[in-house]
Amino acid sequence: MGEELAMDLEELRQLQSISKRPRVLSLISSQIRSLEMELTKDPVPASTPAPTPISTGVKVPATSSVNYTTLASFSWDQDSDKVKIYVSLEGVEQEKIETEFRPMSFDIKFHDVQGKNYRLTVPKLNKEIAPEKSKVLVKPRRVIITLFKTSKGNWLDLHFKEDKLKPNLDKDRDPMAGIMDLMKNMYDEGDDEMKRTIAKAWTDARSGKTADPLKGYP
Question: What is the pTM (predicted TM-score) of this model?
Fold first, then answer.
């Protein structure tokens, strides 16, 4: 049973690494956490150990029903070594914070804050962090979350965002596939007029009304 759960967990992590949409990432992360809790009940054999997140603070039983209010509003800044996230939240007690830092994500829960429970999670960060160094500091009117980068440099965003226009450098790949991927991304993210234009171009190309875009290309 433990081996099966470990295999499921590994496959979910692979899906997480290639997923792009925030809602999909959130759903996958939720399922990963669920499997990880199952693995704590059914330990994985020593040959396939499950990664252990860096967790601190209060522990809530897996069977308890706890409702959380998502903290969607926060600010952040950075230097070459770390990222700081600022959350405006009063009444937080350090000993009632549950944290889980991973190389590419974090999940922080604030319990019993003026009678409510709050949660801030980023399922996939822009780049890797050092979980063992990351921390949460409570101030009178706000909370500061510090994430230490594993490599120096600036992040363009807090969340991971794949460059959909970045060319695929796989030499063995069909050159037409890159164009088709680009058209698909433009269709998915375009407005109604863009979608109609792309759909027409696609239909004309398949019916032979337009020339092959690669014809005559060396």
Answer: 0.51
